[in-house]
Amino acid sequence: MVANINQITQLSQDLQPIASSIQTGETVIAKRQQNPFEPVIRGFSEIINVAQRDIENMDGTGKYPDAEAQQVCNAFSTFVVVHQRLLNIVIGKSGLLEGIFLGPVAAVLRSLESTVDTLAFGIIDSVPGCQADATTKLESLDVTLGKAVCAYTPGGSLGVNVFC
Question: What is the distance, to the nearest Å, from the Cα of residue 45 to the centroid of all Cα atoms in its chain?
Answer without folding.
Answer: 10
